[in-house]
Write the structure tokens for this entry.
Amino acid sequence: MNISKPLVLCFFAAALVFAQAPAVQVAPPQVQVQAPAPAAPAQVPAKAPAQVQVAPPQVQVQTPAQAAPAQAPAKAPAQAPTPAPAQAPAQVQVPVAAEPIAQIPLEGTSSPDSSEIAVLPPPVPSSSSAETKPSGKTIFDSVRGHAYNPYSTVGAASTVGDLIRVPSDILGQKFLYVSPIAQIGYTAFDLAGGSAMLGLSNSVAEQGRLSALVLGYANSIFGLAIKYSVDKEFTSEDKSNVSVRTTNPADNIELYLSLPFGEETLYANGGWITERESGFVDADGKRRKIDYSTITSEAGLLGSRGALNYDMHFNFKRYGGTYVGEDDKKAVERGTYSRFALGLDLGYAALQSQNARVIVGLNDAVGVVFLDKIGKIYKGDNTIFGRLTPNILGEVALSKNLFAFTGAEHSLYFRFGDEDAEADTHYTLVKNNLETVAFMGIRYQKPNWAIESELSTNPFEAFVGENILINLGGFIYF
């Protein structure tokens, strides 16, 4: 019996211990019930100061919990001192409610600096930054007139003349341009799934000038343009059986084609212009022909790589006078020649900011000239030549609507060979042109119209009634 009593007491004590164990497991749920309470303030992200003030109460909530273990040793185990240590790990999980607080800086509410940065627009690129290389259109890249870029700096905005040379660039253009000084007018508009251009221009020859019609069309695949000016006379006499065709100076036809391929464009063109009066005579079957003209052709590839723009091209030119007699024998005028040349024009946007840019260019060419032989009178000769033309173009926005543009260039020529057409004389020439040339122009523009002009090198000429506005022209954009 004495043994059974201790056993009973042991079983009874064990029962009390197991009976108290659920109480220890019940306490953590109570702590988890309290955990959402401090998380409630974190649901108000709109008030940054309130969230900053809520964080300290969460620390204060943990402080009493940590003080609980100090009372636990003073109490019997029956009073469940173990829940206090159980609350400590539960409150270690309470910072899970602090995850919304950790997300607050992402919204810029806990840091005044980060909120201000989120509101400001992107910083204006500095001209000295490497990230200022041109990667798209700028405020300077509207279609420009004849006053702009007279030195053909590669990488500058396209002019109306450039749209003729590379007609695929007509696509998407909608404008009207008139220059009362140059006496020309152009308009571009949408047509048949692409864009068309109509130009009223001029053809200029050595001894004459004519009006010329320009027609162009472009879509996403190709661009095509034609420039045409005609001045021909036809006469005939039935009695004498004589017919005469006379072609007057500036009679002209030019064809242009371009094909875009991503960032590059392949282009080609050719033209024929009569420089001096030419003609054809058929007198009762006896024919004579005289022609003074210039024939040109060109093919090239232009494109860009970041801040570098390039234009590689091959040129051919035939110039002079040719005479064919009744016996079909051919004679040429002295100085008649054929020229072949390879060119590479480069333009680099060396400086660029949001309201200014400077393009440094180099236009160069190398080729050979063949002088025609004139029977037994003059010997045919040939000359190798080259040309280096450094150039600069700068543009700046003086105000929201007023712009200024300027530029300069000079050329270095070299030539060696024999072109006197009389004797075997060889010579070499290396020479700069007489002086560097420069220009300056202004442009005033609004969203749908603009006026621009090149300025005379001597603005004081205005006081004596001279025109100081060169190639003045105006645009209407659509």
In short: The CA atoms of residues 292 and 321 lie 4 Å apart.
